[in-house]
Amino acid sequence: MSKSKPTVLVVDDTPDNIDVLTGVLSDDYKVQAALSGRIALKIAMGAKPPDLILLDVMMPEMDGYEVCKRLKSEPHTSKIPIIFVTAKSDVEDEEHGFQLGAVDYITKPISPPLVKARVKTQLSLYDQSRHLEQLVKQRTQELNETRIEIIRRLGRAAEFKDNETGMHVIRMSWFSRFLAEEAGESEDWCELLYNAAPMHDIGKIGIPDRVLLKPGKLDDEEWEIMQKHAEYGAEIIGEHPSPLLQLAKEVAIYHHEKWNGSGYPNGLEGNDIPLSARIVAIADVFDALTSERPYKKAWTEEKAISLLEEEAGSHFDPQLVPLFIKCLPRVREIQQKYKDIY
Description:
Elements: E1 7-11, H1 15-25, E2 30-34, H2 37-44, E3 52-55, H3 64-73, E4 82-86, H4 91-99, E5 104-107, H5 112-159, H6 167-182, H7 187-196, H8 209-212, H9 220-237, H10 243-254, H11 275-290, H12 301-311, H13 320-326, H14 328-337
Parallel strand pairs: 1-2, 1-3, 3-4, 4-5
Helix pairs in contact: 2-3, 5-6, 6-7, 6-11, 6-13, 6-14, 7-10, 9-10, 10-11, 11-12
C-alpha cells in the first residue's frame, strides 16, 4: 500500500503566487490553498491539519505573523512547521518570524529548487519529531503500566497471608473508583485512586503472624500492634514525587480514621480525613464484610449496607455512604467477576 502524500497548505492573498507554489509542489505533495489568514486558520484547525504551511506575511485583515502566532498558541496546530514566504527580506523581519515559531524563511521571487529542498527538509524533520514523540509516549505508557502492575502486586502480597486469592484488593479498588466517580471527582483522580487503593494495607507486611493470623479476638497488646500497619504502610511507600505513590501513602496511613475521630493512627475527624481515605474506608469494609473467608461466612449485601448506614456519621463519611449505595449495580458486577475461590 503506497504511502499518502504529505499535505502542504499554501497561504497567500494573491492567486498567482498560490498557482506558482502549487505548480512547484503538486508532483510530490497534496497542496491546499487559502487566500486569507482566517481561511488558513480554519483549514489548519480542522480534523486533518496539514503537515506543513507555506505562509505569506503581507496579507490584509490578518497578516502572516498573526496567523503564525495563533497557530502556535493552539495545541492542535502548535507543532506544524511554518515556512514564511515573503518579499520582506530584512534581517529584522526574519528574526521576528523565527521568534514566533517559524522554522524557515523564503524570500520572493521564489526559487523552485530551493522551495522543494526547504519543504522536503522540514517535512523530514517533522516526521522524525513525530516518530520520536510517539516512541517516547509508548515507552512512557509501558513504564506507567509496569509501575502500576508492581503496585498492584505489592498490594496483593500484603493480603496474601489472610486473603490468599488477592481478589480483595482488586474488588475494593474498583469500588473505590466507582465511589470517587459518584462523588464527582475528575477522571484522572478516579484513575489515580483506583491504582493507589491496592496499597492500603501494604503495612500488614510488618505485622507478626501471631497477630495477623490470630483467629480469635485480639487482646489490647495485639490490637496495638495491628494498628501499626497504617504507619508501617506509609513508611514502606515513603516520600516520592509520583502523584500515584503520594496518594497511595495517604490512603495507607489514613484509611482507618473514622468520621467521629475515634479511628487510628491520628484520630482525625470529619473532613480532616483525606477524601481518598474516606472513600477507601467504605470500599474496604464493604468488601471485607461481603467476602467469605476460611474463618468466616460472607455477610449479605443487605446486612453490610445496613451497617454502613448505621455507621454513617460515626465511622464513615455520611455523604459518601448514600453515594456508595448508588454504585451497587456496578459493585455486584465486580463481585461476580472477581470471586474468591477457596
